[in-house]
Amino acid sequence: MDRGNLLLVHGAWHGSWCWDLLVPELRSRGWATSVVDLPGTGVHADAKAVRDALLDVDGPVTVLAHSYGGVPVAQVAASVHSVTGLIYLAAHMLEPGESVVSPLGGPWYPEGTAVLDVPEQARELLFADVPDEVAEWALRQLRPQPAAVFEQEQTEAAWQLLPTAAILCDDDRILPPVFAQRAAKAEVVRHLPGGHSPFLARPRALADLVCEIAQG
Fold it and tell me: pTM for the whole thing?
């Protein structure tokens, strides 16, 4: 079955490597997948990388965005006519004029911080239910994240304009409740058991759910 094109957009501290277990599952189900590596220098640079990746896709495309990846996707997806829908996976839904930290009442890190190191509790926060060998591999790939990605304002909200589904992870330990509450109001809401990174913990189940959402 040819299900069409799917662009995968990773979250903060991650890279396109995080999709390595999910991509074969998606391709075996008929998806033509592509990934993007965000430069991670700020929302607008990341949004340009998403837009460039979308323009490289031949034909209609669905976007799967994880965590912070929902921010640059929301900034540009509605401006690319080939985008047919969004799937937000434990992802931040920002209103125009918001940054990641503004709905939280301010940053959770000291004012003036330029670069955020990988969270000290990354294993528990990001990969709690990921098998040990995979989690150890993923932890080695994580990279420091400039604070600008959390502080720069998003000025567009494609999730308000395009068909959007939200996938929430029932034991997510890092997605702030305010964003989980927003996602729960999406047009289509689905749940997965486990933590923030089902692409590593349960890629088959996630691929099946992506197919179910797309069919619906």
Answer: 0.97
